[in-house]
Amino acid sequence: MQAKKPEGTEDLFGARMRAWERMQAVARETFSRYCFSAIETPAMEQVDVFVHGIGTSTDVVRKEMFRVFSGANFANVLEKGSEAGLKPGKRLALRPEGTAGFVRAAVENTFVPQGGAPVKMWYAGPMFRGERVQKGRLRQFHQIGAEVLGASDPALDAEVIVMLMDFYRALGLDMSRVRLLVNSMGDPACRPAYRGKIRRFILDHADEMCDECAVRADTNPLRAFDCKNDRCREVMAAAPKIADELCDECADHYARVKAYLDEAGVAYEEDPTLVRGLDYYTRTVFEVQVTSGMGSQSAIGGGGRYDGLMELEGGKPTPGIGFAVGFERIMLALEDQGVDLAGPEPSCVYVACAAPECRDAVFSACLALRRAGVRVEADYQGRSLKSQFKQADKHNARLCVVIGPDELAAGAVTVRDMASHEQEQVPMDGLVEAVRNLV
Ligand code: HAM
C-alpha cells in the first residue's frame, strides 16, 4: 500500500518551503523593529488549555480539535469508551491556534511578573483544526502570530495593528486589495447586557433563523453574527450594535485606538458585526481580508485584545493583545496578485568532475569552498561533463568549477562563468579567492 498524506495537509518543499521560510524571515525583520522576540510552544497542549481559553461553545473547541493519545492512554480510552478515565494532564490535543498555548507558557514561566514590563513575542508553526477542507481551509495549516502581555494602553492596540499591516506590505501584498476591519467587543462590564439583548433579539426572530442559531441564543449569542446561513446574516444585520452598548471605558479605549490608527495613516473599516470565532476577546478585535480572488476564505489574519485570558489559564489578571496570520491564505492572495514570495533557488557554485580520477580533487575543492562559506553543488553519479553543465544550470549555478585530467596535471582548476561562458584557469590553491572575487 502506498500511504497518502491526510486530507487537508500538505508536504512543504521546494518553492513553497522557500516561501514559508521567507515569510518567517519577513516576520522576524518586521516584528523585531517593534522589539518582539521569538517563542516556540509545543504543538500539543492539555485539552483544558484550549477549553478554558478558547471557550466551550466555540466551533474550534466543540467540533474541530484533534485529540492526541499515546498508546497506553488510547487503550484506556477505547476500554472506557471516553477520555473521562484519564487524568487532565493526559488529555491532550493538537493546538488549533497559538494564543492559548502562549498564555499557558506565560503563566508557567512567569513572563510578566507583578508590575513587570510587558512581554512581546511572536511564533510561527503548524496549527490543526478538523474543518471541512476547501481552498484556503486546511486541517494542518501554518500561522505566524504575535502576542503582547502586560499592557492595556490603546496605543499598543494600534501599534500591533500597524505592525500587522507593515508585515503584509513587506511581503509584497497590494494593500489597495486588502481591507482592515475593526470593532470593539466590550468587556465584562458592558458585554453581558449586550449578549442578553442579542439573545432576546435571536429568540424574537427564531422562526426566521436556523436551528443552530436558536441554540446559540443560549450558548454564545454573538456567534449568530458569523452564521454561515445567509438568511441568519440578513436578520442579524438589524440586531443591536455593540458600538451603541459599550461602557464609557470601552468606548473611550475604542475611540483612542481609532485615533492612533488615523494618526498612523492606516485605513480601516468599522464592522460592528465582527465578533471573531474565539471566546477570549475583549475590547478591540480586528480582521484583515483580501477583497478579490480568494472566494469565501478571504481572511488572511485576525486578532484582538484578550484581557481576561491570563486568568482563564490560571494566571494573575494581565491584559493581552495579539494576532495571527495564515500562511496558506496569504500565499493564495500573493499568487493571485502575481507576487513570487519564494523567489528563485539561491545560486551556487557547481564543481564538475571531468574524469573519474579527478573525483578526489573535486571532493577537496567542494570542501574548501564550503568551509569558506560558498554554496556548492557537485555530481555524485558519474555523469558526462555536458550533463553536469545541465545540472549546474538547474541548480542556478553562477560559476562552474571544472576539474579534469589537464587541470589535475597543472595543479589548477577551470572556473567558468555560467552566464557569459567565459572561463579561466586558476591554481587549485587560489580557487577560494578566485570564486570569492567572481560571485
Ligand atoms: P483565527 O482568526 O482563528 O485567529 O486564525 C488566524 C488566521 O489563521 C486566519 O485569519 C486564517 O488566515 C488562518 N486560518 C485559520 N484557520 C485556517 C484553516 N483551517 N486553514 C487555513 N488557514 C486558516 C487565531 O487563531 C487567533 N489565535 C489570533 C490571535 C492571536 N488573537 C489574538 N492573538
TrEMBL record:
CDD domains: HisRS-like_core, HisRS_anticodon
Domain Aminoacyl-transfer RNA synthetases class-II family profile stretches: 1-346
Xref: InterPro entries: aa-tRNA-synth_II, aa-tRNA-synth_II/BPL/LPL, Anticodon-bd, Anticodon-bd_dom_sf, His-tRNA-ligase, HisRS-like_core, HisRS/HisZ, HisRS_anticodon
Subcellular location: Cytoplasm
Binding-site positions, L-histidine: E97, G98, T99, R129, Q143, E147, R276, Y280, Y281
One of the GO BP terms on file: histidyl-tRNA aminoacylation
Catalytic activity: tRNA(His) + L-histidine + ATP = L-histidyl-tRNA(His) + AMP + diphosphate + H(+)
Major localisation: cytoplasm
EC nos: 6.1.1.21
Enzyme class: ligase
SUPFAM superfamilies per UniProt: Class II aaRS ABD-related, Class II aaRS and biotin synthetases
Leader sequence residues: none
Gene Ontology MF: a single term: histidine-tRNA ligase activity
Alphabetized PANTHER family for the sequence: HISTIDINE--TRNA LIGASE, MITOCHONDRIAL-RELATED, HISTIDYL-TRNA SYNTHETASE
Name of the molecule in the record: Histidine--tRNA ligase
Species name: Granulimonas faecalis
UniProt lineage: Bacteria, Bacillati, Actinomycetota, Coriobacteriia, Coriobacteriales
